[in-house]
Amino acid sequence: MAEGLSATLVSNLLNTLRSAGAAFGPVATFVQLHTASPGAAGTTAVAAGSSTRIAATLSASSGGSALALSADVGPWTNGGTSETLTHISVWTASSGGTFELSIALSLSKPWASGDTFTLKTLGVGLTPQAA
């Protein structure tokens, strides 16, 4: 699976258009670490060093096309394994919840026991937009 929006999120976005412009309310955002693509359900290759989802805060959309972190997310602390982080998944809750999207890290990160990982940047955009 290529990284991107979950089928559930796409369906909700499309249904918002169908519902006479009814907008989404605020959605909680939690980030989870992965060692390979999270797959269509967001549950593949969850990092063994920490499976914790940490809350993220996103700034308001800039120009209606993109979101970015308003603060660092983390740190996660590796609880006893060596692995390489390659992806994140974004969820609506700290456990359970709805998988929203997955993103490949711009660089893979070797992560050994006792190491920490902090997500410093994250950008999510929807394009193209009509001019």
Walk me through this protein's architecture.
- The chain is mainly β.
- The protein is 9% helix and 35% strand.
- The chain has 1 helix and 9 strands; from the N terminus they run E-H-E-E-E-E-E-E-E-E.
- A 5-stranded antiparallel sheet has the order 1-7-6-2-3. Strands 4-9 form a two-stranded antiparallel ribbon.
- The radius of gyration is 15 Å and the shape is globular.
SSE layout:
Blueprint: E1 4-5, H1 7-18, E2 30-34, E3 54-55, E4 66-68, E5 73-77, E6 83-91, E7 99-111, E8 116-119, E9 123-125
Antiparallel strand pairs: 1-7, 2-3, 2-6, 4-9, 5-8, 6-7
Which key features would you list for this structure?
mainly beta; single chain; globular; 131 residues
Ends apart, CA distance between termini: 30 Å
Global shape: globular
Low-confidence stretches: none
Average of per-residue pLDDT values: 86
Estimate percent helicity: under 10%
> How would a textbook summarize the main sheet?
5 strands, antiparallel
Strand order of the largest sheet: 1-7-6-2-3
C-alpha Rg (nearest Å): 15 Å
- Got a strand count? 9
Short description, anyone?
The chain has 131 residues and is mainly beta. It has one helix at 7-18, and strands spanning 4-5, 30-34, 54-55, 66-68, 73-77, 83-91, 99-111, 116-119, 123-125. The chain starts with a strand and ends in a 6-residue tail after the last strand.
